[in-house]
């Protein structure tokens, strides 16, 4: 007696129930897998994008906005700070490395960041081709930008003023590509990196062009403003020891007109806020999983009751209880396997659409593959639910009275 063939015949005989069971269960699996993948992606983004940044120092304002703008490059900066004052903080004995960054321009939506060579060290970024920036108006491209915009070494382009892509407010100074970075899967992949002088020069010229004509030509030598008068957007700091996290931010916030923010703390708060949505979706998915378990139980129980005579006949021909139970179990497992496959394909196709949207809006592929142990965990949960449904559905088989069933049928 081939148990698998009998189970498949049973599934075919009640195709509508099977279809409903597969649909509900696959929807639940897709939701659980999707939520887990989004959670994993978000958490990974928070952990990896920080690099070696322990502290962000910038203008007073929203701490979260400062972190989003200076670390993830997703928001507008809170303002500028004095470069001279930032350098004083950078010379503090508790500071291991301090990297100034300044930005306010873009090229085709990608931000141009003026900084120092240490900026690459924060993200462990390495040059793929070309060289690092040596003089003003030279840039190094992140891997995503080079691939998307098809820019190569020696290419030149004009940046636009502001953090929103536009072709109306273009600077006249050409930027030249001198290097391209290797992919890092970090925020630096979608940044155009140059030195601070490029940002200052471009904006100095920009101000000159917008100024009134009362400025005479003999004032050109005034363009060489002393460095102490310059401004930067923020300072990314790596500390020598965790102990400095307790004292340095407090000292800066109290004694200067700047604010010092712990990016890990701010991003953790953001993760906690968004986790409410993830938890809600997870509970909805678990509820649907319970409903799908009930559907499978009803389907199997109905089959056992309706085919009681056939099962009794099988028993008279020598089939054991265990073989009849296996028949029901195989049916439940077949539904679960098909539903898991459909749910997995659903979440892959759904996230592919999300991926295209995110790539178009943020110029970066941020979705991470779901770890295998998470897939295994959800698969185990579904298997447990199916076994529970089968355990309840086989109760009539265990209590089967063959003579009574056959006599009633006659």
Automatic annotation (TrEMBL):
Residues 284-401 form the ABC3 transporter permease C-terminal domain. The chain crosses the membrane at residues 16-35, 283-301, 328-355, 375-398. The keyword ATP-binding does not apply. It holds the Pfam family MacB_PCD. It comes from the Bacteria. It is found in: Cell membrane. Keywords: Cell membrane, Membrane, Transmembrane, Transmembrane helix. GO terms for cellular component: plasma membrane. InterPro entries: ABC-4/HrtB_transporter (IPR051125), ABC3_permease_C (IPR003838), MacB_PCD (IPR025857). It is a multi-pass membrane protein. Residues 18-199 form the MacB-like periplasmic core domain. PANTHER family: ABC TRANSPORTER PERMEASE, ABC TRANSPORTER, MEMBRANE PROTEIN. This is FtsX-like permease family protein.
């Amino acid at each position: 007696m081939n148990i698998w063939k009998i189970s498949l015949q049973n599934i075919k005989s009640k195709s509508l129930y099977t279809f409903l069971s597969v649909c509900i269960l696959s929807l639940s699996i897709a939701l659980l897998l999707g939520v887990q993948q989004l959670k994993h992606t978000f958490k990974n983004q928070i952990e990896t994008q920080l690099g070696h940044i322990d502290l962000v120092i910038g203008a007073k304002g929203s701490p979260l906005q400062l972190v989003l703008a200076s670390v993830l490059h997703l928001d507008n900066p809170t303002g500028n700070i004095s470069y001279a004052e930032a350098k004083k903080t950078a010379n503090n004995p508790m500071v291991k490395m301090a990297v100034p960054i300044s930005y306010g321009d873009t090229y085709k939506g990608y931000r141009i960041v003026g900084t120092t060579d240490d900026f690459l060290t924060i993200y462990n970024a390495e040059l793929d081709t070309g060289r690092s920036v040596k003089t003003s108006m030279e840039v190094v491209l992140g891997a995503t930008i080079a691939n998307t915009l098809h820019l190569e070494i020696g290419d030149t382009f004009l940046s636009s003023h502001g953090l929103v892509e536009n072709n109306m407010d273009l600077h006249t100074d050409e930027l030249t590509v001198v290097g391209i970075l290797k992919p890092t899967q970090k925020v630096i992949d979608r940044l155009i990196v140059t030195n601070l002088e490029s940002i200052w020069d471009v904006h100095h010229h920009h101000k000159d062009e917008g100024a009134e004509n009362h400025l005479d030509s003999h004032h050109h030598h005034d363009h060489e403003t002393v460095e102490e008068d310059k401004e930067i957007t923020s300072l990314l700091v790596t500390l020598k020891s965790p102990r400095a996290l307790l004292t340095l931010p407090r000292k800066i916030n109290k004694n200067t007109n700047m604010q010092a923010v712990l990016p890990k703390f701010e991003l953790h708060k953001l993760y906690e806020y968004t986790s409410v949505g993830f938890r809600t979706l997870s509970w909805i998915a678990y509820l649907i999983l319970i409903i799908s378990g009930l559907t499978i139980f009803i389907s199997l129980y109905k089959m056992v009751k309706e085919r009681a005579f056939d099962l009794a006949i099988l028993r008279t021909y020598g089939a054991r209880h265990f073989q009849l139970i296996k028949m029901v179990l195989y049916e439940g497992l077949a539904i679960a396997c098909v539903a898991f496959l459909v749910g997995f394909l659903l979440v892959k196709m759904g996230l592919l659409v999300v991926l295209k949207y995110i790539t178009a809006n943020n110029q970066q592929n941020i979705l991470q593959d779901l770890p295998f142990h998470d897939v295994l965990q959800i698969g185990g949960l579904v298997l447990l639910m199916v076994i529970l449904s089968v355990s309840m559905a086989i109760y009539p088989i265990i209590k089967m009275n063959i003579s009574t069933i056959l006599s009633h049928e006659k």
